[in-house]
Amino acid sequence: MGYSVGQVSGFAGITVRTLHHYDKAGLLSPSDRSPAGYRLYSDADLARLQQILFYRELGFPLDEIATILEDPQANVLDHLRARHRLLNDQITKLRRLVEVAEQAMEVQQTGVELTPEERFEVFGEVAFDLSYATEAHLKWQHSEGHQRSMARAAAHSKEDWAKIMAEAAEWRRRLTAAFDADEPADGERAMDLAEEHRRHITRWFTPCPTDMHGRIADDFAADPRAFALVVPPTEQRPGLAPYLRTAVHANAVRRSDAAGEA
């Protein structure tokens, strides 16, 4: 018994157009004929369609499905394992995006809203890279300091952010001046600037002990997206991020030594 395109479309839950596309692509063609000469799908065709729909549900592209179905030597398990890995990667990325969206909703619920013009007015060239924000949130999400920092950041008003960015801009100006003047990264001037940055974080976001400050500085040196949060790319110099990291760690040693002497 053969089945028409319309019949197969109805009980397979796909459109006639999709069946025509499979036919044109050489993936599935009706193999029977009615007495009047109309093309009909056989039981074997329907079994093949079931396989096609199974692989499509898993996200396989049509050309890969064709390879699996046509090549008797194809290792179906290898194809499924590769698809399994890809799907898990996609799930991980989607979960990250869900967390970022939830975090954004929390910020919006605080009532602090800035228009695009206000954001540019306050933040200028300093931009938050969404991919970095996602990774940082996943990395530190269970940290009490990170949670406190996010909560305080969300609660800041436009006026608060204007003060924060003004302080940061002045600090940044003096940091680049010290770097351009070849001041040693472990010298007093650079360490004082590192200490000022640590206190800035404590004052506006979360208590920042020296070990935490060191991890932040390590991120600055390792990831340009992180360093762009404190120094816009147009103001950066080659070697400035490692310079700041060295100053931060030197300042930690200085504070530790001072505490030991006290």
UniProtKB/TrEMBL annotation:
<dbReference type="InterPro" id="IPR012925">
    <property type="entry name" value="TipAS_dom"/>
</dbReference>
<keyword id="KW-0804">Transcription</keyword>
<dbReference type="InterPro" id="IPR047057">
    <property type="entry name" value="MerR_fam"/>
</dbReference>
<keyword id="KW-0010">Activator</keyword>
<keyword id="KW-0175">Coiled coil</keyword>
<keyword id="KW-0805">Transcription regulation</keyword>
<dbReference type="Pfam" id="PF13411">
    <property type="entry name" value="MerR_1"/>
</dbReference>
<feature type="coiled-coil region">
    <location>
        <begin position="77"/>
        <end position="104"/>
    </location>
</feature>
<dbReference type="InterPro" id="IPR009061">
    <property type="entry name" value="DNA-bd_dom_put_sf"/>
</dbReference>
<dbReference type="InterPro" id="IPR036244">
    <property type="entry name" value="TipA-like_antibiotic-bd"/>
</dbReference>
<dbReference type="GO" id="GO:0003677">
    <property type="term" value="F:DNA binding"/>
</dbReference>
<protein>
    <submittedName>
        <fullName>MerR family transcriptional regulator</fullName>
    </submittedName>
</protein>
<dbReference type="GO" id="GO:0003700">
    <property type="term" value="F:DNA-binding transcription factor activity"/>
</dbReference>
<dbReference type="Pfam" id="PF07739">
    <property type="entry name" value="TipAS"/>
</dbReference>
<keyword id="KW-0238">DNA-binding</keyword>
<feature type="domain" description="HTH merR-type">
    <location>
        <begin position="1"/>
        <end position="71"/>
    </location>
</feature>
<dbReference type="InterPro" id="IPR000551">
    <property type="entry name" value="MerR-type_HTH_dom"/>
</dbReference>
